[in-house]
Amino acid sequence: MLTQLTAKLNREQPDNVALHTLWIGDFNRHHPLWDEPRNAHLFEDRYLDAAQPLLDALSDHDMEMLLPAGAPTLQASNSKNFTRPDNVFGTQELRNAVVSCSVKADLRPPLTDHFPIELHLDLSIPATTTQTKYNFRMTDWDTFRKALEHELTRRSIPDTPVLSIVNFDKRLQDITNAIQQTVQQEVPETKPSKYAKRWWTKDLEKRRTAVQRLNRQSYTLRESPSHPVHTEYKAARNRYIDAIRATKKEHWETWLESASSQTVWTIGRYIQMGATDGGQARIPDLKKPDGTGTVSGNVEKSKILYDAFFPPECPPPNIPPDHQHPPPLFLTRPVTDAQIHDTIRRLQPWRAPGPDGIPNDVYRHCADLLVPILGPLYRATFELRYFPAVWKEAKTVVLRKPGHDDYQLPGSYRPIALMNCMGKILSACVIESLKYELETRGILPSVLQG
């Protein structure tokens, strides 16, 4: 199969582009070229005959062994003997690109008899930079409030009515800049690891370090099977495995017990989807709507998803200019500071922010500072008939729809819009006012649900 696949890749590769090929895996073949000499029992004719097709394939495709000979990659569960079923082969073009290729015995995961192999290649590919984020969970909110109060005072932001659109935009920009400046000064930064787990704890980190240290010692002393470090390593590894299982179970049960009317749907979705390795977060090549093929670039994928999520606008209704509308049943009431306070109290913590980077937590912890200057802005949106463009901006996150068969179709995904919280607070206040008017006047039918 490897020979057929490599030949197919060679045929499809342009003539002016060098093909770099790697064969990495558990070949389950033994030979003196890579196994330790002490494993002479693996060099019988039947083992050598089984390895010959692999050697022929390596010769046909000019492949070289990149993992140094004699480095064992497996410790048998029963006999505890070290052998070399795993290997790394590459084309000659890759030889100069190899920075290191070695067995990392200390990184051996629990419940496996194979050792990880670490391969470093210098291919001059620019690495993706991990975006630094603000860790609002570790924020000292008393210090944050004092810093924000200083910023608002320094900018002399008034709490008087807003009389013009120009004044509206300036005051909105001053408030946003003051909050963002305080966030930069007082909120600690964090660079989340792509390997991070929600259930991971400091205790597990200490246990992992101890197991890795004993693993290195056990691997170094593999020629002395009676050394007590092997027993010590096995016992520590088993305790580490049990601690992982217990921690994951405790984290899951704690989350279930704290479920709310909103998170219960997320829990149901997790149970329905079953276990996953996290790979579903990646979007594969998407099929073109006209069926002419697929696209693989991020720009092309974004265009297809945008067209699927946001169809063209419908033409405006053809209403005669002399049409007489019925009188309104009620007039919109001005948003009060009490409404704003009540809306902020209902905001959910630790939610992703919108384009301005200001999450709900800032408003929750600093409501007494912000409500007096937000109130005039919110009331001015009705008096000036003006809704700023920044409150309409959103970051769109693409999520999979569970249970679909083909995730190359754009219809298998759904968007979530992350909007600026300042505009969402105003919308929530207006919604509450509308709900009150509709319910007290009996406008909604009694059979309406949801």
UniProtKB/TrEMBL annotation:
<feature type="domain" description="Endonuclease/exonuclease/phosphatase">
    <location>
        <begin position="16"/>
        <end position="117"/>
    </location>
</feature>
<dbReference type="Pfam" id="PF14529">
    <property type="entry name" value="Exo_endo_phos_2"/>
</dbReference>
<dbReference type="InterPro" id="IPR005135">
    <property type="entry name" value="Endo/exonuclease/phosphatase"/>
</dbReference>
<dbReference type="InterPro" id="IPR036691">
    <property type="entry name" value="Endo/exonu/phosph_ase_sf"/>
</dbReference>
<protein>
    <recommendedName>
        <fullName>Endonuclease/exonuclease/phosphatase domain-containing protein</fullName>
    </recommendedName>
</protein>
<dbReference type="GO" id="GO:0003824">
    <property type="term" value="F:catalytic activity"/>
</dbReference>
